[in-house]
Amino acid sequence: MPSALKMASKTSATTTTTSTGQPLSDIPLSTGRTDATAPSGTPSTTSPSEASTISSTSSPSGASSSLPTHNYRPRVAILGAGISGLSASLSLRRAGWSVTIFERSLFANETGAAITLPPNASLCLSRWGFDFEKAEPVPNWSIRFARADTLEVVKTEEYKGFGEDMGWRSWGVHRADLHKGLRELVIRDGVKGAISNGERETEGEVDGGHGTKGMVDGGPVDIRLGREVVGVDCEAGVIEFKDGSKSGRWDLVVIADGAHSKLLPYILSPSMSPKDAKPQDLSPQEKEPQVQPNPQTLARPTGRSIYRFLLPLLPPSPLLANPHLRPHFLPYSQGGPLPGFLSWHDPIRDVLWVSYPCRGGRVLNNAIVHDTQPGEAGESPGWSTAVGREQVLRVVEGFHEGVKGLVEMAYAGGAGDGDGDDEEEGDGVEKAVVVDEGCRGEERGTLTGEKGIKVHHLFKRPALNSFVRGRAVVIGDAAHVMMPTHAAGGAIAIESAATMEVLFRGFPPSETSSQLEEFVKGRLKLFDQLRIPRCNLTMLASNAGPKWLNVEGVEEEVRRYYKGPLPHKDALPWTREFREVLFCYDAFEAAKEAVRKEEAAAAGFSSESKGSEVKVSEVEAENM
């Protein structure tokens, strides 16, 4: 195992449901355990679909006056169990919150291709104790730009030491392994560096050398499967399920239901809440609230699509047997190029083929971005659909014959890793992931046994001015769907989750509702201030393409939200200027600084108020 990998690995609820007509004031609060009772002694109610629960919280999960103050845990509902939802649940657990995830799927399929973890994301994962060694990522140390017709490499950018002095690294990882590693972290007993019972902070260097002062373990996350949320009352913290039942009142609600989010309208439409969506507003087919369309909520087709597939890299892979391809894919340890991106571009048809290794270098991830072809348009329930060999070959007609051979390999049985229903760089929330350990495809001899290539249509949405409303916040693809141009969508979602860990610890040490509500809304305001610039910068850059600052109007749009430095307009993706802007970011430190400034401002205001009170008292005394 590379030394860099060793170093990285080393550093590495309460739910309430009722019938639709039951008054919210009558809803009993339960701890999420089967033996829980409401404060009044009434047994808690759990719908049959909630029986699909991965883990129930082992720490006190509700705000109950019968609990000691030091056991008090605010409650958060996270809607979606993709990469952003799991990351947020882990960060809020580490901040001391009692976390419940509601996921509409049943975790039935192993899905996806690979995902890039730039340094801004790997930093967060290492501090969370993510098991990099188990996930088998491959270092991302270079990007090679090559001609599609001749395979000639015309430019190489190497960044082997990029960020390593601060513990940041760049990796290519199979998204199923990333999802599985996050899931293990959220449900396991204990959090690395956490403290228990009444203590509110821990001193010393923990979590791979990073202090966790102020962190309290909220307990293993409660994951409720098969629970589709169709409505959110952002002000009251109440969520509504497809079956008409409700759950609340949550102290915080995190919407993480992906690029085709059905819940984003509740963030953008203050007048729409579950209580407004009664039977007269429901469609007879789906029984879902009919939220008025808002242009900002719609993920619109871009006219571009992406083919995805995986290929084996180890002998006897035809990749290494082909004399034209072998120099590009020979392992670094055997004299090959530095691992990282290989980008073939056909400028005539504007087709971009990007590949990089994952799973310890045994698997090659392939993505071909192209203009959407006739018959490809439209949206399947899982985003991605199978596509025929001849159609793919027509798209790559201008490519070298050796590269076309990779398409033939895909249809001969070397491609696929599940049904690929999620985005390469985003949340992957359409279907969650379960990996059967010891049963990976490549270990069975055919990678996964699935043939063919999937096509995924690329979408984008206008930038949002705010991600919050009331006590609710939207993160990940639901907030900022991105093209995979800069391998940044998943990373920026992980950043947002890390920001939440810092902002939402240090909550009021009692269950006084007014204090907690004020705390939550204040920290959500800080979240907006921190994340709107970063997320919108990254989204606008990704959606405008490799030469994004040369696209008319993009820089002006970016400057509406982001005032920091930008790379030169001709800087290519992953070159130094580009990396320093998008990937040299420590979400933890940025959030800590924002909290320090907020607390200092509050302390200054308090001192001024006390000074004014003293002066008023002196004047009153003189006039007596």
Automatic annotation (TrEMBL):
GO MF annotation terms: monooxygenase activity
Superkingdom assignment: Eukaryota
Descriptive protein name: FAD dependent oxidoreductase domain-containing protein
Keyword Iron set for record: no
Source organism of the structure: Neurospora tetraspora
Composition-biased stretches (Low complexity): 8-20, 36-66
InterPro entries for the chain: FAD-dep_Monooxygenase_BioMet, FAD-dep_OxRdtase, FAD/NAD-bd_sf
Ranges of residues in domain FAD dependent oxidoreductase: 75-274
SUPFAM superfamilies assigned: FAD-linked reductases, C-terminal domain (SSF54373), FAD/NAD(P)-binding domain (SSF51905)
Region named Disordered: 1-69, 198-218, 270-300, 601-624
Compositionally biased tracts (Basic and acidic residues): 198-210, 275-289
The keyword Oxidoreductase appears for this protein: yes
Protein family per UniProt: Belongs to the paxM FAD-dependent monooxygenase family.
Keyword line: Monooxygenase, Oxidoreductase
